[in-house]
Amino acid sequence: MAEALSIDEARKLVLHAQRLPPKRQAGPAVAATLSAIGHLGYVQIDTISVVQRAHHHTLWNRNPRYRPDHLDQLLGEGQEFEYWSHAAAYLPMRDYRFSLPKKHALASGERRHWFDRDERLMGRVLERITREGPLMARDFDGRGKAEGAWETKPAKQALENLFMQGDLMVPRRVQFQKVYDLTERVLPAGTDTSVPDADEHARHLITRYLQANGLGTAAEIAYLLKDTKPIVAAALRDMASGGELLEVQACGHRYYALPRSLELLGKPLARRKLKILSPFDNLLIQRKRMQRLFEFDYLIECYVPREKRRHGYFTLPVLWDGRLAARMDCKADRPRALLHIHHLALEPWLAEVDAFCAALRGELGAFLRFQACDGVQLHRTTPSRLKGRVARAIER
């Protein structure tokens, strides 16, 4: 029989597994960053920069001592690598071999990338990088190249196809643009390159997901990982029947959990510690899951026409009291070192407004420093009657 968890217990388990809010950590700050990447399994890369980009934001929320140059350092040391999880991501190098099934499937034609394959152009691109060393897409723009006219867009597609099928890796970025080099020149010596079979791969996906998320279903574990749900579902059944996993009931749904994860329920949760999250935080990325477990119906409205937005362009979910208590649409005005809170929308259930505002004030100091800002301006709140109350609290 599946063990039953209350909704509060389910949320507590998920938040502890996500390391939110974070606990004090000893040792070098960069080691804490690597630990966070290894624990989460991936950190999504995103280009939007109205506030610190998502990969920095997500790691800062697990490691308050995080600095953006940590990712460059870890990439340069071969401790992490760029590839595709459910989206573009940084992944721990220890998991490199689990990227190989997808790479081999793309290289063989068993699976298709979204870019058309121009084999001749891919060969020319690969030959240039072999001969010249690391190159960026802009190095193929055709200005004065002896090889003839290069067009940026086709060359970029060739680079991405070679990257996705494993011939190229990204040893670094320059102004957020990828630098590509041969995998054999980037991959650290001694990296395990044995290809896992389907069952081992499924078990890896399950273990990594449940370690980082506490609870999961087959659909959640296989989220946006093409063709993996059937093998994940079969492995879940096998692991549960063998005692490697527990079945738990929460919010009217059946989930799986690692047996040791339930020990997290005995640990206190820092409920009054507030955290301002990225829309692409690992906690939030599956919207149906958030609606079910946290009763939080969330949409990133930067992809919605302006006139149809309810909360703002890039609303940041706010974690407080073990729940997602608000949404904060922000923009960092870096030349003026001013953080604009265009809209702070409190969830309807939130009654302890003063306690929430005190927690928000306590977190905003660190958040402003992370955004390279030293001031904050609140423009609008929902409910609107709370604007003065919130403004007085956060501007003290």
Give the total of beta strands: 15
N-to-C series of helices and strands: EHHEHHEEHHEHEEHHHHEEEHEEEHEEH
How confident overall, as mean pLDDT? 94
> Percent of residues in helical segments?
25-40%
Strand residue percentage: 15-25%
Q: Please identify the structural class as seen in this structure.
A: alpha+beta
Topology:
Elements: E1 3-4, H1 7-17, H2 29-40, E2 43-44, H3 54-62, H4 69-76, E3 80-84, E4 88-92, H5 100-108, H6 119-132, E5 135-136, H7 152-164, E6 168-174, E7 177-182, H8 183-186, H9 198-213, H10 218-221, H11 229-241, E8 246-250, E9 253-257, E10 275-276, H12 287-294, E11 315-320, E12 323-333, E13 338-346, H13 353-370, E14 375-378, E15 381-382, H14 387-394
Parallel strand pairs: 1-8, 13-14, 13-15
Antiparallel strand pairs: 2-4, 3-4, 5-7, 6-7, 8-9, 10-11, 11-12, 12-13
Helix pairs in contact: 1-9, 2-4, 6-7, 9-11, 13-14
Protein architecture, described:
There is one protein chain. The protein folds into three domains: 3-95 and 196-266, no CATH class; 114-186, Orthogonal Bundle (Arc Repressor Mutant, subunit A); 275-394, Aminopeptidase (3-Layer(aba) Sandwich), CATH 3.40.630. It is built from 14 helices and 15 strands. The chain has helices at residues 7-17, 29-40, 54-62, 69-76, 100-108, 119-132, 152-164, 183-186, 198-213, 218-221, 229-241, 287-294, 353-370, 387-394, and strands at 3-4, 43-44, 80-84, 88-92, 135-136, 168-174, 177-182, 246-250, 253-257, 275-276, 315-320, 323-333, 338-346, 375-378, 381-382. Helix 13 crosses helix 14 (387-394). It is globular. The model is unreliable at 143-151 (pLDDT under 50).
